[in-house]
Every structure is written in C-alpha cells, then in structure tokens.
Specification:
The complex is a heterodimer of chains A (402) and B (532). With 402 residues, chain A is α/β, with parallel strands linked by helices. Chain A has a domain at 158-398: Vaccinia Virus protein VP39 (Rossmann fold, 3-Layer(aba) Sandwich). Chain A has 17 helices and eight strands. An eight-stranded mixed sheet of chain A has the order 3-2-1-4-5-8-6-7. In chain A, helix 15 (297-307) links the parallel strand 4 and strand 5 (308-319). In chain A, helix 9 (156-169) packs across helix 12. The radius of gyration of chain A is 20 Å and the shape is globular. With 532 residues, chain B is an alpha+beta fold. In chain B, 34% of the residues lie in helices and 21% in strands. In chain B, helix 2 (25-35) packs parallel to helix 11, helix 10 packs across helix 13 (501-515) and helix 12 (466-496) crosses helix 13. The longest helix of chain B has 31 residues, at 466-496. Chain B starts with a helix and ends in a 5-residue tail after the last helix. Classes of the chains: A alpha/beta (402), B alpha+beta (532). At the A-B interface, helix 9, helix 10, helix 11, helix 12 and helix 13 of A face helix 1 and helix 12 of B. Chain B: Keywords: FAD, Flavoprotein, Membrane, Mitochondrion, Mitochondrion inner membrane, Monooxygenase, Oxidoreductase, Ubiquinone biosynthesis.
Amino acid sequence: MAGCLMQLRRLCGPVLQAAEQLQSSTTRRLYTTQLQPHVQLTSLLQLQQVSAGSVVCSSSSSSNSSTFVAAHSAATQWHRSICTSCCCNSSAGQQAAGSSSGLQHADFPAGVPVASQATPAPPAAAEALGSTPSSSSSSSSSSSSARQQLRSSLDKKEAAKFAALADKWWDTTGGPFAPLHALNAARVAFLRSSLCGLRGLQQQQAQPLRGLRVLDVGCGGGLLSEAVARLGAQVHGIDVSDEGVAAAAAHAAGDPLLAERIRYQKTTLEQLLASPGAAASYDVVMASEVIEHVKQPGQFLCDLAAAAAPGGQVFITTLNRTPAAYGLAIVAAEYLLRFVPAGTHDWHKFITPQELAMMGADAGLRLELLSGMSLQPGSGQFSLGQDTSINYAAMLSKTSSA
Amino acid sequence: MLIRRSFAALASSEVYDVAIVGAGMVGAAVAALLRSNAFTADMRIAIIDQQPPPMELTVSQYPDMRVSTITPANMQLLQQTGAWQELAQLAPTFQHMQVWEHAGSGFISWQASDIGHPHMGCVVENRLLQAALLRAAKAGSSSSSSSSEGCLDFICSGTVKALRLPGSGSQASVPPLAGSTTGGTTGSTAGSTTGGTGGSTGGSTSGSLAELQLADGSSLHCRLVVAADGARSRVREMAGLRTVGWSYNQRGLVASVATAEPSDTAWQRFLPTGPLALLPVRGGFSNVVWTVPPEMARQLEGLSSSQFADAVNDALQPDPATFSSSSSSSAGTPSAFRSGIAPLDAAAAAAASALQQLGGPLGGAVLGQLLNPGGALGFGGEAGQGSYWRRPPLVEGWVGSSPKSFPLQLQHSGRYVAPRLALVGDAAHSIHPMAGQGVNLGLGDAAALAETLAHARELGRDLGDLALLQSRYEAPRQRANMTMIAALEVLWRGFGVQAGLAGAARSAGLGLLNGVGPVKNRIMQYAMGLTQ
C-alpha cells in the first residue's frame, strides 16, 4: 500500500533526480522528505463525473462491461484455484487478516528515529491496548471511555513516542506517509460520492455520512478514519500494529470532534468478528490498501462482508495486477530503485477489478462502482478516472442473500 | 499529553471551526462567504474584535470619507454572499475611467463599453460594505448554540492576548499561555529534531487545535485562525510571520466632496506630489483620495471647505496652457488630446528600463502580461470611441467632516499561512491605495480561503492543515497579490513621481497606451479583476 504509492510517486517524479537522491541518501526519510505532496483532488466536476457514472464501470452498464464479462470465466477459474474455501476455518482466516495488516506496515519507517530521545524499549502500550476490553468493540459502547482508558494507560514517554509517530504519519508536507496523504483525497472523494449515490444521501453538504457506523480495517495512522469521521460518520478503526493504533489515537485526540467520533482498537478483523455484537453491525466497512497483502483475499472479503450490516457497503482500494503495476510497483521501486525491500509487494497477489467482483460475489458482495485513481504526472496528485490499471477503488454492496 | 489532557475537558461543541480575528471588510467577507457555501454553511465561526462591529446599514446625510472601489469580479462575489442586495442602492457604479498627467498631454481613458461591460466597478463606503457582509454572515446562522446548524458568535471582549498554534518552528516568539502548561515537560522540546514539535510540551502537535487567549481571560479553541486584523496584525506578529515593506513617506488624504455636477467617471491625475483621484459615491457626491507629502497633508487637513475645493480644483483642473482647447468635457476631437504615438521608441525604452530597475523580473512579467495578452500588438493608433480627454467636474467643497489623512506603506508578509493560521487582507499585504485595489486583493483572499475550506470540508480534510493552506490558498494568492503589488509599484515609480526620465517618458507612455486599444483594454480587464 503505502509502499506502492511511494514508489509510484517517486517514479512519476523526476526520475534522474530521484536516482541521485537515492544514491546520496541512505535513509528513506531523507528521500521522502524531499517529496512535495500536493493533494489536489477532484473538483466537484470530477465528483459529478463519478456519480454520473462516466468514470465508473458497474457490472450492468458501462463501457467496460464487455471486458468485464469476458474476464468472468477466467477470473472465476482463477478465483477457484486460489480461494480454496470461501467459508474456511477461522485460523486460516485469522492468519490471512493478521498477515494483511502486519504486512501493511512492513513499510513503516523502522529505520527512522521516531523520537529524538532514546526510545523506551518495550512498548508498554501493547499491554495497555491489549487491555482494552473487547466488548468495547460493540458500537454502542462509549468511545470516549475507551479512549480515556487508552490514554490513561500510556506513560509519558510512551505518549511522547507515539505523538512523534503521529507527527510522522500526519506530516502532509513530505513525511514518509506523504504518498498516502496524496491518495487520501481521491479515495475519500470516491467514497463520499459513491456512498451518497448508493444510500441516497445529500451530496451538497459537509457531513453527508452523519450517523453512519464505519469500520476501517487496517486503519494505520488514521488518515482515512479521520476524513470519514469529519464527513459525519462514527468510525471504528482497527489495526494489528500497536504503533499505528497508538499514533492514530494520539492524533485524533487533538480534536474533540474526532475523539468523539473515532475509536481505535488494536485487533484483527477475526477477533473483532468473534466479539459479541460486532458482526453485521457496520453500515460501511473499509479496507484501503490492504487486500493486496492478504493471503486469502476471498476469505478476507467474506470477513468484510460479515462485518457489514444488511444493505451495507464494503469499500476497497488496491492495486491492479497489470504489467503497468508490475513495472512500477515491483520492478522499478523494489529492484531498480531499491526503495522498499524486495518482496514488499507480491505482484501475483494483486487483484484485478474483475477478480474482485468475482470474489465479492462469492462473499455476498455486489460490485457497484469502480474508479481508477491515477497519479497525475508532474502535479503529484491522484485523481479519479477511468484508468484502473494501477490503483483503483471499488464500492460493493452486501446483497440480501449473504 | 498536556495538550490532550487540556482537551479532554473540551467538547466538540466548544470548538470553533474558524476564528476570524478582525471584523473588518475582509474578515466579514470570509464569514459571509463561508456561510453562503453549502459545504461550509454549518461551520461554527467566531468573529473577534475589540468593539462590536457595525451591523446596521444606517446612511448618513453625507457619504463616509473612507470608501473602496470594488471591481466587477468582486461585485459578483458580494452577490454570492447576499450582501450585494442591500448595497446595490448605496454603491454607484462608474462607466468611465480617466487617468492623466500633470504636465504634458498624456492621458488614458477607458470606457466599460469598450470591453463589453455595463460598468467598471462601484464605489462603496467601507462601513456599509462591512455591515452588509456581517449581516449576510449572520443571516441564517443561529446565535450561539449547540445545534448542528452553523453558528456565528461575535466576541467583542478586546484584543487577542496570546496565540497558540501547533508547532511550526516559528512559535518561539509566541507568549506562553498562562496556566496551560503546568506539569513537567517530557524534554522533547529540547530534543526534537523537527520544528514540528518545537513549541509543544511533548504531545502530538500536528493535530492539536489552535488556542486564542483573549483580554478578558477567556480562551477559545479553533481549527483555523484567520488573521484579518489589518496591516499591523497582532496575530501575524504573535505567529512570528515576518513582513517586508517600506514607507512611502507620503500620506493618503481622503474627503467626501460635493461637485458641480454628478459624475459617472473615476478620475485620476498624476501630480508631482502624488496621484489624486476623484471617485463618484452615493448621493451624487464624490470622494477625494489624494496622495501627498506629510506636511502638505497637514495643511490640507486644516483647510475650510471652500479652500479645500480650490486646492483640489487647482490640482485637478487643466492647466490653461496645456489644455486650452479643452473647454468642454465632451467636445470634439482636438488632436492634441488624441493619443500621441510619436515618441514611441523613447517611451518604450524608458518604460523597459524603469521596469528593469524598479520591478525586476516580476515587474517585467507584469507589464509583459499586460501588454502582450495574445501575441503581437498593432501600434496602429486604434483609439476606441470616446478616448478623448474630458474635464473632471468642479469640486465645491468637502462635506460632512474635514479631510483626514493616514500614512501610506507597502507591506507584504513572506508567508500567508502557518499550521492552523491564514492571513487575509491587509494582515498579509498592505499596498498603496492608488488603484483602489486594497480591498479587492483582500476580497480575493477571502474568496480563495473560503473555497479552500469548502474543498477541505467536502473531502474531510483538516481545515488547518498546512499543506492544504499552502497549495490552495497561499500559493495562488501570493501570485495574484505580488502581481498587483508589482504593477502598482511600476505605475507609482514610473508615473507617479517626478523623476527625470520617467517623468518625460510617462507622458508619452500614457498617450501611447491610450492609443493602443487592446493594451488599454487588457490593463483595465486586469484591474477590474476579469483576468488573472
């Protein structure tokens, strides 16, 4: 996820300059801080295009439908071969989701000092976070009390460390997560527009998602969670990374509105689903830049569907399995530029939109809307469009039969 | 931690989305524009000023002497906010503009019809514009409540005593907030590697809110501070943002005057001491804006109504020797007053060298932009209809109160934004009032900032995010404002002050410009805000 995006950024920037910088710099931080992210998204015009369907392919009516149908049988075959059991045992699923989130943070800047002072050795936060009652995952429990508990369990040094981490996650002007910030506006625009369309919400307002319960699987530092909370939703962000969750919580604590609307929890999707009241309790389930790291994407989609309420939506962003994505995300970034460790991404695990549709159908999810997210050369900004060959976003609805 | 602890007691209903410091025209425009956009209409907004601002459109017998020229583009902006409806009757438009020389016969005149517009702008009293904008901002918002609808609170409890912004590396000069930093720091203030946590007490700074402490001891938390507190902005100073600028050692003298006949023209004459403008205002009166040396300002301020009229008429009416044949304001086409093309080469060379010296590359770019909109120019003397010198109306004396003057300076802030802070209007840039552009630049700031915030809210972005403010507000506004500042400097240095070669060149230059329709129209379209 982040790795891919960073790679894309880097590649689309002045390549020679990038190579020079890479040679001269030993840390990724040095490099990334020189990147200037300017997220400019989507004007209303583009949003309207999305809602009007001109950049969207749905299974029923779109310019891509022929491709879509043609890919159907092949995709089904592929799907059968890799997703051996869609309602498989929980341990496999757990492993899958665990690895997903774990891998998601493989490109967390471990080499970067997160605080200038000596970092305290063992994260006591893990304990503290682990002690967060799992019952709190029920969406009716008070989020603020859970947050209070989380906060009070952290000692000062830990808090400072996570605050520094949060500053890294939230450095929109050039930090290691700048590419994610660059993507954020585009994915939020797609999410907002498609949810408004599918749920009949009024677009022309600041908080169209008011009252919706949203689960953010693999929330990381909370980039997507915060944006969705500002759009009005009550967000539950989960991640397997202690650091991600703690950084996210530290950042959201800065604004009472976010603190009231977001609850972060260190857990896996499977653990969450096993807790009482969690299944089928979310209006929207999001997994952004996660599924490409999952061992069993079919099962992962089943779990996402299980968390969604009847009639709810599942939102996915990921990388397509195309030569273009291979060239940029794997060959160039991992092997030529050696920007992220080789093996961060496994191209074979990338998923095409068609496969996503097939696996989604098996999981009881209907693909409703699809949009490419393309990095604009020069500007460094992602925008929504028809080109799904590298990054794309998809909105699926839980079918009644599921 | 400390910051977070202090927010633990804070409910989201106590947090303002935007706190606007300064209820002047530009601050009011920000509030009104936010209120009129669907994406920002439900914001919680605070307007902070020392005194309750005017909220009524009370019209006195004579127009106020403090007026502003509003471009057509910004008139549309006012319409968008709903403020224009109340102002329309009180802000007369003008259809002509004439600029001419003290010596020589150089002049340039514009007509709105030349560029297909019904008018070239309007002149409005500052107080009325401010009140109309505040009324528009207030309309449709609840007073102060916990409702989910937007609210607008006026906080008139004096000055802002202290400002706390999330760390930006420029916080050293900010006075600490008493009582809010109790407890030990974690030492990260000293050891922090980035400016990002420099001013903090060890907590996360990137997401924390801005805090304003007011003179009455209360404090206020918000997601974005908008500094609209004028050229001597205290907020800007507290944020440690530096300005560059200089004083002109001149004063701007203003007065409301009665004239022999009403006028629909904005008149401006370049005098050796500085430019003098006569603008049509409400009720058939006019407004004088006269740039003069300090000692002359003192003299003029002390004149009786009729003495002042004589002084203005002396300065504005044609020198009989030069304009002898121009006895009527509309008459014929005395060739002396047609645009002179003769000293073309000399004028062009002088203008170019003046730009090189004074404006640098920026000034050159400006003139290039003005003079070369779409390629080659035809120097064919294509003077449009009505480009004849006309005589301004006779001034009969000041009305209402006696003339007042204020110092002139140019000041520009190097940065317009910091984390959770945006400067607008004179707080970001104060300029020579020569072309009446001051408030127009400020309204442009307000529009750009309001659009930035609407974009942020549409996509769930943080209103105070530095990258957002830099890319969508600061960068475009600095480009626009620097362009105008440079253009005005060029006009001022090149045409406004007697300086040997420039003095000779400008006379020819004005005639040259007047003769070239496309160039002239291009300048006016730019000044009217119709092009960038």
